[in-house]
Design goal:
Elements: H1 5-18, H2 22-41, H3 52-64, H4 69-88, H5 115-122, H6 130-145, H7 149-153, E1 160-161, E2 166-170, E3 176-180, H8 183-201, H9 220-233, H10 242-255, H11 260-267, H12 272-275, H13 277-293
Antiparallel strand pairs: 1-2, 2-3
Helix pairs in contact: 1-2, 2-4, 3-4, 6-8, 6-10, 10-13
């Protein structure tokens, strides 16, 4: 089944006007294809005869398919955006998703690494290979700047200013931001640029900072694999992803006393509300510390006033 022409027009609009990344556009395409497939299955031509029942029925079908809360919410967001676009273009007279609330869900806290795990990951002894020196530089830069993995593999040599110590990042929506880096990242990058990258390129040229032995840019999948290998070497047993280092960057900054607005700018979040999730991480960590060490705790298996240590008799 081909996508409805108005869906294609909307995706083109998002690409040109919204500046969305190919990955985001592909996610919208998949979600809107699900909606279109459901609508045709229940006999509702798109978009002329859509009603609020069409949208609620679609959400019900997602729940029946046991789609996660996050995926369902993303689907609803894609459908809502498309319907608002149709209303603005006067393709439909009323938006059938107006007033429709998504199913409530608790806050899903981002997964992070402890500072000890990050230290173990970054302080791995460097093996005497070109790839290992490159990988160490990538790891240092990722944690030092909190960039997304797609931004990391897209960094160009011209984006670096190692004299001052900052990186120019092009993020979502082609928005640029400047992120500082620490001395360890600068040192690793200087060594990589002077001693390692020329040997990887072998007289070839590339504008990209991180390249493979074939002289082509490192891919997201390639970095994911090397990160897992390095995590195993560092003795980290939990499942790890590049985004965990981004989450760890933000969380560790806040733990160290950084203000939320500065973290928002460095992460490239369009609104501070997105960044505020990391304050929940910090509060959860403090709660765990409190539960572990505070002396007036409820004894296991006991309820009532007498179950509190030190309670008045």
């Amino acid at each position: 089944m081909l996508l409805h022409p108005m869906v294609e027009r909307y995706l083109t609009h998002l690409r040109i006007e919204g500046g969305l990344s190919p990955n985001t556009l592909e996610a919208y395409r998949r979600d809107l294809f699900k909606f279109q497939t459901y609508a045709y299955r229940v006999g509702v031509p798109l978009p002329a005869q859509m009603t609020s029942d069409t949208v609620t029925g679609f959400l019900r079908s997602l729940r029946e398919a046991r789609l996660s809360h996050t995926s369902s919410a993303r689907c609803l967001s894609a459908v809502r955006g498309w319907l608002r676009y149709l209303r603005r273009e006067r393709v439909i007279d009323e938006d059938p998703a107006v007033g429709l609330a998504s199913r409530g869900r608790g806050i899903k806290l981002p997964k992070t690494l402890s500072q000890q795990d990050v230290t173990a990951l970054l302080d791995l002894p460097v093996r005497n290979t070109r790839e290992d020196h490159r990988d160490r530089a990538m790891m240092e830069l990722l944690y030092a700047t909190g960039v997304r993995v797609s931004e990391l593999v897209s960094v160009e040599v011209a984006n670096l200013n190692l004299d001052v110590g900052y990186l120019l990042v092009t993020g979502k929506g082609s928005k640029e931001r400047v992120v500082p880096m620490n001395d360890q990242a600068r040192d690793a990058l200087c060594h990589y640029l002077d001693e390692v990258r020329p040997r990887l390129l072998k007289q070839r040229t590339s504008r990209y900072l991180f390249v493979t032995t074939r002289g082509v840019p490192m891919t997201r999948q390639g970095f994911w694999k090397l990160l897992r290998r390095r995590a195993r070497r560092a003795g980290i047993t939990k499942s790890i992803s590049p985004h965990m280092l981004r989450h760890s960057f933000a969380t560790h900054l806040l733990e160290g006393g950084a203000d939320l607005r500065s973290v928002q700018v460095m992460l490239g979040h369009s609104t501070i509300a997105t960044t505020q999730i990391y304050t929940h991480v910090e509060r959860e960590r403090l709660k765990q510390v409190h539960d572990r060490f505070f002396p007036r705790k409820r004894r296991r298996g006991v309820t009532g006033k007498s179950s509190v240590v030190g309670s008045r008799r």
